[in-house]
Amino acid sequence: MYRLCGTVMILATALLAAACSGDAAAPGPDGSSSAASPRKFTKTGSLGTDRQFHSATLLDDGRVLVVGGRGKRTGGRSDVHMSAEVYDPATGEWSPTGTMSAQRRSPILGQLSDGAVLAAGARDLTETVQKTAELWDPATGTWSGTASSIAPRDEPTWVVLADGRLMVVGGVHGALFEHVKSAEIYDPATGTWSETGPMAEGRKNHTASLLKDGRVLTTGGGNPDGPYLDTAEVYDPETDTWSSAATMSVGRAQHTATLLTDGRVLVVGGRGKLSSAEIWDPDSDTWTPAGNAREPRAQHTATLLTDGRVLVVGGIGNLASSQLFDPETGTWSDGPTMAESRYRHTATRLKDGGVLIVGGQNKERTSVTTEIYSP
Predict the structure, then answer these.
(1) 121 conformational bin, left if phi > 0, alpha if psi -120 to 50, beta if neither
(2) pLDDT per residue over 223-263, tens digit each?
(3) Cα 141 to the chain's mean position, in Å?
(4) Cβ-contact 84, 65 below 8 angstroms
(5) Confidence class of residue 3 from pLDDT cuts 50, 70 and 90?
(6) Do 209 and 159 contact (CB within 8 A), yes or no?
(7) Dihedral of alpha carbons 213, 356, 167, 162, sign
(8) How would you write the chain as a 3-class SS string?
(9) Contact assessment for residue 161 and residue 217, using Cβ atoms and an 8 Å cutoff
(10) How many C-alpha atoms does 43 have within 13 Å on its Cβ side?
(11) Higher confidence at residue 75 or residue 315?
(12) Is the CB of residue 121 less than 8 Å from the CB of residue 142?
């Protein structure tokens, strides 16, 4: 009897410890909660090839197209990819879909109003900055050429405008990788590019956000080792002009900017070990503090969820953590941990509200793995 009771007590103690482990909550210095979150990242199908510095876009039919990027080929040598792959959320699997005409690291990528997907620009393995462009047909999975951009661009930002044209902002070009002080727009109706009015500053490692009124906000930029811009500009497609916006509280590069449900824009992190966040209000052209993420983040992703919160994932420093920002309360909370650390990855919100995390760099290598955050 004594042995039986002792065994029961040991089992009960073990179960109690397992149930309680990780549940203690301790507020961080920024007021965020560190209570353990249920693990909501689940692994899904692996890419056919490892990718970082790639681009991803959600297709009209709910699939996700990923193109280009950098990885390792046989023998461990670096490579810049010409390949593309499509993720089908119905099966959780990736499949190859044609080969582009050029190697593209950090390519421009977006689905246009006619359904085709434009891939353009980027740097190849020889460090040549491209200005070629091509179109992918979702029905056939094939690529075809289109007009080249006016300027070669590497590391620009881009948005698909409300009318279905694609706008590209800034980047670098030339042998010295000068910061581009211009933007241009691709029109799928004519298959041609046109330059917009001039920007006030050349920008690299900046952001571009399509606002609810159709204008475009661009923020920050700079080289990875600085200096970092604290300025912002707004493009108005109605007048084809840029105007200065209010200055951020600090210079930022390799940060994120996310359009919130109410039309404001949340900016998070950046080079220089920034953990701070701030929000721009387009009605008042003002920035207000939005607390601090628990960890400094750069080359991370930030995705608007269907409930209005923002999911911030990964970043330089081999972060596997995630955090959630709630604009209703202006507070941060800890999210679940990914299966592996990542930066230079992509995050795409799926039609069902989940977020697909793809590739990136982890502690040991460029990744082939993908996982989904389920809200």
Answers:
(1) left
(2) 999 999 999 999 999 999 999 999 999 999 999 999 999 99
(3) 24
(4) yes
(5) very low
(6) yes
(7) negative
(8) CHHHHHHHHHHHHHHHHHHHCCCCCCCCCCCCECCCCCCCEEEECCCCCCCECCEEEECCCCCEEEECCEEECCCCCEEECCEEEEEECCCCEEEEEEECCCCCECCEEEECCCCCEEEECCECCCCCECCCEEEEECCCCEEEEECCCCCCCECCEEEECCCCCEEEECCEECCCCEECCCEEEEECCCCEEEECCCCCCCCCCCEEEECCCCCEEEECCECCCCCECCCEEEEECCCCEEEEECCCCCCCCCCEEEECCCCCEEEECCCCCCCEEEEEECCCCEEEEEEECCCCCCCCEEEECCCCCEEEECCCCCCCCEEEEECCCCEEEECCCCCCCCECCEEEECCCCCEEEECCECCCCECCCEEEECC
(9) no
(10) 8
(11) 315
(12) no
Q: Which residues contact 105 (CB under 8 A, 6 or more apart)?
A: 53, 68, 69, 70, 80, 122, 123, 124, 154
- At 310, the amino acid letter reads V
For residue 146 the two structure tokens come to: 């289109």
Read off the amino acid at residue 152. Answer: P
Measured CA to CA, the distance from residue 143 to residue 342 in angstroms comes to 30
Residue for token digits 């919130």? 260
Q: Distance between the two ends of the chain, CA-based, in angstroms?
A: 48
Sequence length of the chain is 375
- Residue-wise pLDDT for 330-340, tens only, equals 999 999 999 99
Cα–Cα distances in angstroms (integers) from residue 268 to residues 234, 291, 304, in the given order? 19, 10, 13
Contacts 24+ apart (CB under 8 A), 23-32: 28/294, 29/292, 30/275, 30/291, 30/292, 30/293, 30/294, 30/332, 31/291, 31/331, 31/332, 32/291, 32/294, 32/323, 32/331, 32/332, 32/333, 32/334
Residues 206, 229: Cα–Cα separation, whole Å: 9
**Rounded Cα–Cα distance for residues 67 and 201 (Å):** 29
CB 137 within 8 A of CB 185: no
The answer to whether residues 326 and 266 touch, using CB atoms and an 8 Å cutoff, is no
